[in-house]
Amino acid sequence: MKPTIIVCGHGPGISDAVARRFGREGFAVALVARNAERLTAAAAALSAEGITAQAFPCDLGNPSAVAALVSDVRAALGPISILHWNAYAGGAGDLTTAPVEELRAPLDVSVFGLLAAVQAALPDLKSAKGAVLVTGGGLGFYDPKVDAMAVQWGAMGLAVAKGAQHKTVGLLHQKLAADGVYAADVVVLGMVKGTAFDHGNATLEPSEIAQRFWDINQRRTDISVTFP
Q1: Of 67, 178, 56, which Cα lies nearest the Cα of 115?
Q2: pTM exceeding 0.70
Q3: Cys staple from 128: which of 37, 65, 81, 226, with CB 3.0 to 4.6 Å?
Q4: Which structural domains are found in the chain, ordered by start?
Q5: In whole angstroms, what is the distance from residue 113 CA to residue 150 CA?
Q6: Could you read off the pLDDT tens digit of each residue along the chain, which spans 228 residues?
Q7: Helix locations, the chain, DSSP H
Q8: Alpha-carbon distance 216 to 28, whole Å?
Q9: How many CB atoms lie within 10 A of CB 15?
Q10: Full strand arrangement of the beta sheet holding 53-57
Q11: DSSP string, 81-112
Q12: Rg of the chain in Å (alpha carbons)
């Protein structure tokens, strides 16, 4: 049976490139996001390239739904070897005025959904000596200039979520190492071509970021790396 990678938060850009990169290495690919129609089309495109791929629509901000998702993937494609978390949620642009529900949404996706997936997949990950590979964002770094940028862009909630996610990955790295499970993030510093943020000025190639994920998983020495 092929090893399986769950790509959570699939869309054009990084996650699709990761699915293709690992799929070319013989992984079965579970594509996860909310839009079933887009997922089905993406899975068909990968299948046309000879990659085993299947769509699994899911709200990744709902921990119960995420736990059920992992079970569904396991039943359809087999035990999970790699969990790739690329999902994020915007909202809560201004921490001083956003309602509590809006403040919670980015954390639900970036932290609580991620942890729900890790917990549900952990028996498989331990057995496979697998990995948790997370797409980080520079807005999560503590730096006065970055913080000013997040305020200016109306992305304060996302910055908080990415900061918490970055810490979560570091803790997972330390906790899971004894079980042979690798956890790390690639923190992307810039705009990625082909994504919703690409307004003609994006410079980062998704395939190169996917290669970075492949490389760090092969080395398994880094807790966090930046790209580029």
Answers
A1: 67
A2: yes
A3: 81
A4: 4-227 (3.40.50.720)
A5: 23
A6: 899 999 999 999 999 999 999 999 999 999 999 999 999 999 999 999 999 999 999 999 999 999 999 999 999 999 999 999 999 998 889 999 999 899 999 999 999 999 999 999 999 999 999 999 999 999 999 999 999 999 999 999 999 999 999 999 999 999 999 999 999 999 999 989 988 777 889 999 999 999 999 999 999 999 999 999
A7: 14-24, 36-48, 63-77, 100-107, 114-128, 144-153, 156-176, 206-219
A8: 20
A9: 26
A10: 53-57, 28-33, 4-8, 80-85, 131-137, 182-188, 224-227
A11: EEEEE---------TTTS-HHHHHHHHIIIII
A12: 17
The two structure tokens encoding residue 20:
């293709």
User: Tell me, what amino acid is at 178?
Assistant: A
- Structure-block tokens of residue 61: 């901000």
- How many residues can be counted in the chain? 228
